[in-house]
Amino acid sequence: MGIGDRAYMRGSSAPRTPISVTAWVVGILVGFFILNLIQESAHANFLGWMVLKESALQPWQWVTHALLHDGFWHLLGNGLVLWWTGATVEQEHGPITLLKVLIGGALIGALTWYLTGLGGSQNGALVGISAGVYALMLVALLDKLDHQITLLLFFFLPVTLKVRWLLIVVSLFAVLGWGFSELPSRHEWLSWKPAWPDGIAHSAHLGGLIFGWLAWRYLNRTNWAPSYAQVQEPMPTDAPSPAFETPTEENPSSRPLTSAQARAEMDRLLDKISAGGFGSLTAGEKRRLEELSARLR
Predict the structure, then answer these.
(1) How distant, in Å, are the alpha carbons of 2, 12, 14 from that of 5?
(2) Residue 199 — left, alpha, or beta (φ > 0 → left; ψ -120 to 50 → alpha)?
């Protein structure tokens, strides 16, 4: 591109990047949090119809409960993880898949929470999008188990660990919290008392994890493409299609490639992602893409 073709030389601004669905969802959650602050300050109850209540179930509450949060830290935790993992799912599978996983995780989490309380006092209430966020986390990270990530514990203590261990800790906390805290807290059992009362809906988190695992399996087994992309089936021919096929050597990374050859091979993989989503790549192709990306940096 010549300098005369650039946006600032043509007298027009460059096209703006559209706001991602992840950003829209986070913005909506923040908006409802502000409305909740107004409700509390005004001593009103105009958002009470959105809370999922065991004692007064309404059909819409299975979805609307996810838009409300119980305090700033509840919103901040969900918002940060949603921003991180939601962006990954949206990039790899598309915005429609992001919304399906988020809503599906919230629904299954709410159902798991409701079933956990059956036979108990039936006076609990559920708010928060945590179950949907847990589902997004699994879809985004299950194929990156050996990647290293750095977390800021308490927002100042950096801890580096593999994704595998993060998911193990999160899952164990959900299971143990469900069995030793939430379940006995919602039932008046004489032989099984809560080991620690924390008021967290661990059952909803557990339901979100289960849905996220199922969604990840579904996406990776069937190469479910995002709605905005159409999978192009290769035409029957004796020769492989150069747009979708990758080299058939047993160990292509061992071949010495020029920069032009490496870029051409990477372009073929990117074309396949554009047509069928990141899930359309095999495990070997994903590794090859990482190798080529590192080489061309």
Answers:
(1) 5, 11, 11
(2) left
Q: pTM of this prediction?
A: 0.70
Residue 48: strand, helix, or coil: helix
Tell me the pLDDT tens digit for each residue of 91-106. Answer: 999 999 999 999 999 9
**For the structural domain made of 21-222, what CATH number should be given?**
1.20.1540.10
Residue 125 near residue 56, CB atoms below 8 Å: no
Provide the mean pLDDT of the chain.
83
Q: What is the pLDDT of residues 114-133, one digit of tens each?
A: 999 998 877 889 999 999 99
Owner of token pair 């096209």: 15
Residue 289's pLDDT band, with cuts at 50, 70 and 90, is confident
Classify residue 153 as exposed, middle or buried by CB count within 10 Å of its CB (0-12, 13-18, 19+).
exposed
Provide Rg for the chain, Cα atoms. 23
User: Do residues 195 and 186 make contact, with C-beta atoms less than 8 angstroms apart?
Assistant: no
Nearest to 146 by CA among 296, 286, 276: 286
C-alpha distances out from residue 14 to 21, 23, 91, 110, Å: 21, 21, 22, 44
Residues of the chain with CATH 1.20.1540.10: 21-222
pLDDT at position 269 over 90: no
User: What are the residues whose beta carbons fall under 8 Å from the beta carbon of 212, sequence distance 6 or more?
Assistant: 101, 105, 134, 135, 136, 137, 138, 139
Supply the DSSP symbol for 15. P
| Cβ(105)–Cβ(211) below 8 Å | yes
